[in-house]
Structures
1.
Amino acid sequence: MGLLRIALGQIDTTVGDLDGNAAKVLASVEAAKEQQADLVVFPELALCGYPPEDLLLKPHFLRDCRRALDGLAAQCRGMCLLLGFPDTAKGKVYNAAALIHDQRILAVYRKLELPNYGVFDEKRYFTPGSGCLVFEVNGVRVFVTICEDVWVEGGTAERYAEKNHAHVVVNLSASPFHAGKLATRRDVLAGFARRTGAFVCYANLVGGQDELVFDGGSLVLGPDGGLIASAERFQEDLLVADIEGDAGSEATHPRQMSGRWGRRIAIQSEHASGRVAAPPRVAPPLDRVAETYHALVLGTRDYVRKNGFSRVAIGLSGGIDSALTAAIAVDALGETNVIGVTMPSQFTSGETLSDAALLACNLRIPLITLPIKPIFAAYMDTLSDTFGPDPPGLAGENLQARIRGNLLMALSNRFGWLVLTTGNKSETAVGYCTLYGDTAGGFAVIKDVPKTLVYELAEFVNRTAQRNVIPRGILERPPTAELRPDQKDEDSLPPYAVLDPILRAYVEEDKAADEIAAEGADLGRVREVIRMVDRSEYKRRQAPPGVKITPKAFGRDRRLPITNRFGNGRAGAAKAPAT
Amino acid sequence: MGLLRIALGQIDTTVGDLDGNAAKVLASVEAAKEQQADLVVFPELALCGYPPEDLLLKPHFLRDCRRALDGLAAQCRGMCLLLGFPDTAKGKVYNAAALIHDQRILAVYRKLELPNYGVFDEKRYFTPGSGCLVFEVNGVRVFVTICEDVWVEGGTAERYAEKNHAHVVVNLSASPFHAGKLATRRDVLAGFARRTGAFVCYANLVGGQDELVFDGGSLVLGPDGGLIASAERFQEDLLVADIEGDAGSEATHPRQMSGRWGRRIAIQSEHASGRVAAPPRVAPPLDRVAETYHALVLGTRDYVRKNGFSRVAIGLSGGIDSALTAAIAVDALGETNVIGVTMPSQFTSGETLSDAALLACNLRIPLITLPIKPIFAAYMDTLSDTFGPDPPGLAGENLQARIRGNLLMALSNRFGWLVLTTGNKSETAVGYCTLYGDTAGGFAVIKDVPKTLVYELAEFVNRTAQRNVIPRGILERPPTAELRPDQKDEDSLPPYAVLDPILRAYVEEDKAADEIAAEGADLGRVREVIRMVDRSEYKRRQAPPGVKITPKAFGRDRRLPITNRFGNGRAGAAKAPAT
């Protein structure tokens, strides 16, 4: 009866950085070797990063991936690993896993189930595989799957695993985060374990890639679905666990269902003798608010750093959105890499100004003050003939926001700082924002965070710090854009406690107006909200990327046409505003 | 031996406008009835518009489509038509065609082949069909296909058509335009006709939808692949053609390969007796530059109007890009609906200013002049402490472009004009543009037009008008952004005649640097261009939509990650600039 010491190499890869990713794989392999592991499993497409998108349409990218795989295999002396990479044959591309042992690629498994929904476009690139890969390490039978393969109940992978008497099912994964996803994932994996009677070893990617955050949290589950070990979330980790083989596993030959490798692959590990047991490790759980916060921090850190920036600038309005964004940025990048900018106008109150200063002081970040009144006056002067004597109205409000956007971008151009924008999901949804104004910047940290959750996250920041890093005044003042005298968000929008559930039902759950009203909201109000969401599509299309933390984010997750006359809440032609 | 008079209803639908689209269908049905047609064929998904994207994920959208289909069928007395709509059954969605005859839906065909490449995401939404639909009108056997079905050589539709002895193959299509596409399409359809020995009647969509233009040009081809009739391009049309049945067609029963409708469908038209022959009509061909120009006009007109705007504003720099954009806008919307805005700075030359004025005069559009110098001075004054004594450099250049963007958006906000941006594909590719500056606006008319083609289109405008609508000075002056003294595009970029072929090879053909250099370009220069393209991805992500006219446009056609360290021409980490 053999014993398999498995290591799950939860690494933070960068899309396209073949050399950098290979170096991370090798470092994990070395660390696993030190812990006398027999097999190291890496995430899906770990060699090239996930998702590589249309890089997969470039033949030279695929050639370079293959070269990098061969080069990496040659450096893996005496170790056995499973590594995700894009495999090619006869003009087709596969989402694949290479089984590498002692400098040789023994076999390649090709993903059977290709997700093509939500943020996934795998059918754009990949051909599904048709076979399975089973091999033995120290007599323990290991069955290989990639991500979606185990999400299809009663699917091909499950049938193959059963027929092959899999003892351990490994899953190479790149499963994007949203709040609550871990529980779903555990349920799915536990179901697969119970139905196949196998251990499940799940190696997930960690790190941010444009709008996606991969949260790690790699897992080992028993055949009963129970948790044996789990890795840290939102950081790199190497999770090691011992799995004992069953008595019968060596007796039965694996049956290859189809595919290229009909031969039996039996590996005897060099590290199996004389080692002491590795006690299983379980990472502490995180609640919904905590995991969301960590996702925002990691997504921001990785976007900024992987794109070659070190410092960021944030416009601090004295409101809660910019306060939370700044707190996240400080956690992501350190206080020396965050610059606050306050840009008061004639409508900025003394309280918001002093709260912005207090926030910067609490976060220990510098604060640059750039009043916008003289610039605004210059614009109004230039436009006076064309505009005529009437007050500028919305045009004047948007102009203030756009002056601020320009000032931030001027700092960005001059000093190389990436501008972080501060809009939340509620605003983004209804278009309560100024294109090229408060939406101007490189990364929209909280664009997928509904306003009600912004408050919860701000309280989390203060609770974690055990002091009011975000001043109470900011938490307690009614939300306002301060673009005209005594303006309040609630003049233009329903209260956020009413708005957010309507938005969730419409945006994330695709419900119709009457269905949403049936849940208790006022039908007229629901229709008005839907109308605002629909007519703001053009603004979202020009918005910067930001971290997905809900089941359906704006962006690649939700692909609505701009030109679109469908809508329960709309009468007649769609008039998209110009702002 | 029967005769089939077929009408192809080439209509310009709007996505989501179920009532409006149904009204267009009914109007075409009436027109076809007047011409004594037996069968009217409409484009793919004509009922809901194409592509509906994630509207297809909304159950209430699908329900409304079904309701609209039933309502429409009830109004089609005494007529036979084929209409594209999204069909649903058991939680699945199909890209389908309804056969409607005399107020009843006789059968539904479901598309077999689902494109999931380029701009297409059909596997995100649809399940492929499994059967075929054959029916007889006046004894002539008609076989139904939808778009991609006929693009797969030797595919299922082709086999079914042969086995069913199709006499006429109809194709409901929504085939997006790019320059040269019509010839490809005719080759594909002619091949299908020859291989199956059937007439091919191809009904294409016409009109603009966000980034796509559907060019119409519906066709009737003979069994030898020869052209019998063709509809106008870039406008609505009803193409009528008579097709004689073969002697044997009434003798053989159609064999249903699979699917729900095993019964024989034989329709006798009310209009078949006593009519005179309809002479086939062939639309005149358009050359590459002409068809591109018409695509830009139609795409602009439909984007503006379908989104509820009537007037547009364009910043006229005195350069060729804005001149061409303005000429297109005038052709699309009429001279009374286009407003030129010139925004001179200290770097604007007298020639460019007077050329802008001359252009506006030639186009008969008003010209608003808004000098930017005082606003620029106000910004510089505000930033002086932070920037210090050094000249502002790139930050100052971008600021000028952003002031212009703000002024245009202020006019937009105040007067409800949509801002058209003027950047071409060469600039967009290498990032030679200012985010929130010259990229600020609702629609980017020529974003997919390489600079060398901009010149050809400008000459086309003058040739067509038989006068220099676009002043010769604009055509002959070396391109310049005029953001610093004596600036020329060629200070920063290779000459466009060198740049454009490199861009086509890299962006549209996915070639590697060494492959492009092997075609004659300097390897160092190729690498530098690739580096510029890769690092500008974040800018393109925030750019407005514009008309696709090449085989691969930026946008849904080309999906590259922003965070991306892969690249032949790059050394080390990717540093995305902040502009």
Note: Chain B touches chain A through 98 residues (CB under 8 Å).
2.
Amino acid sequence: MKAWLSRLNADLSFVPGSPEELALYDLSRALPDVSFKTEIVQDLGEGYRIRREADGSFCISGGPTGILYGAYALIRLAFAGEELPESLSSSPRYSLRMLNCWDNADGSVERGYSGRSLFFENGRLQYDPGRMRELGRLMASVGLNVLCINNVNVHFPAQLLLEDSLGDAASLADLFRPFGVRLMFSIDFSQPMLHQIPTADPLDPAVQAWWKETAASVYRSIPDLAGFLVKADSEGRPGPFTYGRNHADGANMLAEAVRPYGGFIVWRCFVYNCRQDWRDTKTDRPMSAWDHYASLDGLFADNVILQIKHGPFDFQVREPLSPLLLGMKKTNLAMELQLAQEYTGHQIDLYTMMPMWQELFEELPENNIMSLAAVSNLGRDGNYTGHPLAAVNFFTYGLLAWDPKTDPAAAVSQWIRLTWSFPREEEQKLSALLLSSRRIYEKYTAPLGIGWMVNPHDHYGPNPSGYEYDVWGTYHKANRDAVGIDRTAGGTGFILQYPDSLQKKYEDPETCPDLYLLFYHRLPYTFRMKDGRTLIQRIYDDHFEGYADTLAMSEIIRSLPFPEPDRSVIVSRMEMQLHNAKEWCDIINTFFRRLSGADDLHGRIIYD
Amino acid sequence: MKAWLSRLNADLSFVPGSPEELALYDLSRALPDVSFKTEIVQDLGEGYRIRREADGSFCISGGPTGILYGAYALIRLAFAGEELPESLSSSPRYSLRMLNCWDNADGSVERGYSGRSLFFENGRLQYDPGRMRELGRLMASVGLNVLCINNVNVHFPAQLLLEDSLGDAASLADLFRPFGVRLMFSIDFSQPMLHQIPTADPLDPAVQAWWKETAASVYRSIPDLAGFLVKADSEGRPGPFTYGRNHADGANMLAEAVRPYGGFIVWRCFVYNCRQDWRDTKTDRPMSAWDHYASLDGLFADNVILQIKHGPFDFQVREPLSPLLLGMKKTNLAMELQLAQEYTGHQIDLYTMMPMWQELFEELPENNIMSLAAVSNLGRDGNYTGHPLAAVNFFTYGLLAWDPKTDPAAAVSQWIRLTWSFPREEEQKLSALLLSSRRIYEKYTAPLGIGWMVNPHDHYGPNPSGYEYDVWGTYHKANRDAVGIDRTAGGTGFILQYPDSLQKKYEDPETCPDLYLLFYHRLPYTFRMKDGRTLIQRIYDDHFEGYADTLAMSEIIRSLPFPEPDRSVIVSRMEMQLHNAKEWCDIINTFFRRLSGADDLHGRIIYD
């Protein structure tokens, strides 16, 4: 990421006064041999229209940020070695293209694998302005326009962003404004209680008044704040349930407070029983978001957005689309992705997400949602993403949020070209490798949609029963005969939360796509897959293949001409991935062989 | 513990000048109606002789600390409500009766369940002198005479005890001297390398010189320091292996440095491969101490003591005696116990250790060892042990180290009487409960000597496969048919490290005592126990019984007249133990039922 940013050749101490000024500045430094002029057309908003004039110069029309996005579109093309086109126009599919940072005020980053926070240290905002302008470019160059800087788990003193630290936050908002980036803050639903108000009940007048006053004060300092992000009644966070209110009550109260300023309340739907008894087979965690929210459809204010994780669990390698994304037609929805590789290799293992995102949009009609959000994978590491190749997820996420029809292969190739100048053959090798990396990771980890066989808390590395007797509602219940949870109508009934077409697609194990088989079904190890293999043999095969594929990836990685310092990091992390893949492969196979007693048909080693 | 200390009625600001002065002071406050005189008889050393004179007064003869131990013996009898005898004499079985504190310089305590360190805070010695004098009485009153104040894992800056903090350490040694307590320090084998010496090789002259000079400096400040405690080449600690030397080389080099001052090197034998590959079935961790040390028998200097954990693993609920304790006849040995309830309930669950210790001495000839050591269970909590009933382990350990023939029931009863004045019936109930508590804990945790089914790192609560695919060498390899590691001659051969008589006792699963069955043998679930039950049924039965017994204990606990503040702590921890016992019972039974497919013969609920 750093590599292609440096090609912009920008002086990071330069303070742009507006997106237009920034556009012209970056164009002049990045493409000094080409002339550009700009034309503000307010109606175009964030969209742009570019045409080549007779004199060879380019005219970029657009709203103020539209011009900026047009400029970066040209720069991306040019840096990728493509001919600049005669004309080019585009506008974003979603108006809010959000990055959620899980940064704590103490400078740590929850699920951060790229160093400490870019924004915080010692309980307060503390940042390098030059890096902020680099981050602004990172976001603007791929069209991201909302930056939530603090963790959805609001640990004290992060609350002070709305209070004592508001001045500092306003300075940061000023810094990002020319980049078309609006700030957002995660808030603590119980924050009024830090001010002698004995309740956080959303229907309590004192609470409502406190939020109105606070919103007024915040918006005086940051008039274009995108709004507040809220994680309520989830994993120990306070929320409306404490007071017998529902989440529409909670969200609408806050929405009322920010409405005068055009602000949004982004309300996360990550609510489930995180103190579940493992003995309780009635409760099925994937059903919880629907159970909590579906009946509230139509009750949310028009400046509330429900932010829904893409799957019904929590960013597992393979989950079906969250049914809530299909079922709330009268509510503003955002889909939440996770760039941070929490369950997907900690930015050690290669895991390019674009193919996964494409699969989501195969079932999700584009207009079911009005926004995309992604948990950031950025941190204070020199290269921003810890692993240089993890940057592809940041880049392609931006393109996806602009246009969910973005072709994964084209987006990945563009990123490679922007980042390194590889010969075409090497570029294609790397592109193919990146595009295959998710499936490879999937093969050597938990089988066929079952998820959760990771080390608890840390979420790196295999632990087949790490969550099996825990409180998190994530069980596989593997025994000597069978594995998985029956989520069909005859089981927990989760599948009934889907439209008929999807129920039909998944409800019959004979026709359910293999990769989702153990998400929806409990099956004996002797179950015959569509290709004739038994389930247990398929599990073994996938794991041996996953490790073999990783070995092959490591050969390719070593052969590619990455420059330093990237090369050392990439090669050493590949070694770690190889070790991890071997552990996963052997441990999962041993786990299932101990249970099933089945030998591998091909006589490969499965340890006792 | 606090309760009976307070009956001593001592002014903690009183600074005794000698053990004799302390003895007379404490006798005068504790037993004001009786007259005492003392008579130093150097030959008696730590022993004492007491006789009642014609005038009803008592004369206590002994070496300086012998007089002190005699005084406390009388006070214990009196506080326990017994007649003071006409005469009484005793001397300790072992000359070094050691308490090992795993306290870190930052004030944390490794495996501490009683609050922060009594000695350290903020990287330096920092203590309450009054509490130190209370601790001195705690130790002296049960005959303990060596206090190692810092963790065997020496984290910086604990090394400074030998350097910058030596003056403070000397003051602490002065404080403890009248209590007959000599300090000991855990040292970092690589400490010379903090001083521009490029190696810690024990055969390097510069290293030898550094330790000699350092020992000279330390002994100038603390002439009666008991010596140094060393954990070398273990779990990441540096040691002689780095330099191709053996542990006799390492220990003898240090022994030479402290020899002029009468100091000891206590060298821990807790050495094993803590990066084991779980696939490796050749390596069997319990064999490692023998493999490292047995061949060195006779090579250690006479002021070296090898400190050997009582079992070959690491303080599990049920382990056989470490074979090393039986096999090194030409070496000074100490047996290491652990009062801190690391694997035995974290001072939440009741676990009285005396019955376990008695079992150890059934196989260990008293004169095989010359010392006992125990990892401390003390901390800064008001009652010192977190759980008021955990104090029984500290108390009885002292009596055991003085006389390994101490009767467990008598020792436990004496502790109860010293601590609370219960009616005889309640006292007997509590005594029976405490004496049964270890077997109850054993029943609901890992079955029949298998150990290690705990949550990793934390070591509280069940996790049947938590260590199964990890690097620690602690595997059960349970599969659908069988469980356990074969450690007989036909298996790993561990059993061959024992004398013939013990080999015979354990080698045949048909005659091996049930409680050690899965320590030595890998057996099918269908194995018939001596009483006719199958192995799997025995596992189920033990777990259901363990929980039922805990329920019964909780009824008794609630019925007993504990005074506050003890009562609240005891009752609330009993609730936690009940929850823990239920989790263990259900999870272990479910784990084995998933594997074996066997139903409980009595139709009790085993969850799916």
Note: Chain B is about 35% helix and 10% strand.
